[in-house]
Amino acid sequence: MRLFVLTLAAAAAVAAPAAAEPKGVAAAFGNTIRALYEDGKSQWLWLNADGTWRAFGRRGKWSSGQWSQKDPNKVCLRQSKPFPAPIRYCTDFPADGGVGAVWASRSMDGRPIKVTVIKGIREP
User: Fold this and answer.
1) Do the domain assignments include residue 19?
2) Of 4, 87, 77, 15, which is closest to residue 46 (Cα–Cα)?
3) What gap in Å lies between CA 100 and CA 23, rounded to an integer?
4) Fewest C-beta atoms under 10 Å: which of 52, 90, 94, 101?
């Protein structure tokens, strides 16, 4: 009887629909965004659902500010710390991307970067 109950429970778990993984910017909440530069250095970014962000830059400095979504495929960042930046930086963020998504983009100064959404909060 115990084997039957375990088998039935396993079958129910397999048949149950899996919760849909968030896509687009929502996939970043509670996860880590890594921008890999051609020289092998990385920048780490964390977006919060309340419109704030924090980052650890490739030069080893922390920054933070507010983010907004420009269109379904772009995210814009405005820095407030360590100093308020007079411009906002907008970059690609695929609407259909989720955890594990990798795409090519450009850094604020125009350098090519490879962006990845990594599961969980990973600090360098």
Assistant:
1) no
2) 77
3) 11
4) 52
**Residue 4: what pLDDT?**
36
Is residue 77 assigned to a domain? yes
Q: How many domains does the chain have?
A: 1
- Pick from 49, 42, 31: which is nearest to 122 by CA? 31
Say which CATH number the domain at 97 has.
2.40.128
Amino acid letter for position 120: G
Task: State both tokens at 65.
Answer: 């500010």
How confident is the model over 62-98, as pLDDT tens digits? 999 999 998 889 999 999 999 999 999 999 899 998 9
- Domain extent, residue 29, equals 24-118
Closest CA to 86 of 56, 61, 108: 108
Give me 54's structure tokens.
Answer: 């924090």
User: What local confidence, expressed as pLDDT, does residue 19 receive?
Assistant: 65
- Give one word for 18, left, alpha or beta, with left for phi > 0 and alpha for psi -120 to 50: beta
User: Per the domain annotation, does 4 fall within a domain?
Assistant: no
Q: pLDDT by residue (tens digit) across 90-121? A: 998 999 989 999 999 999 899 999 999 999 99
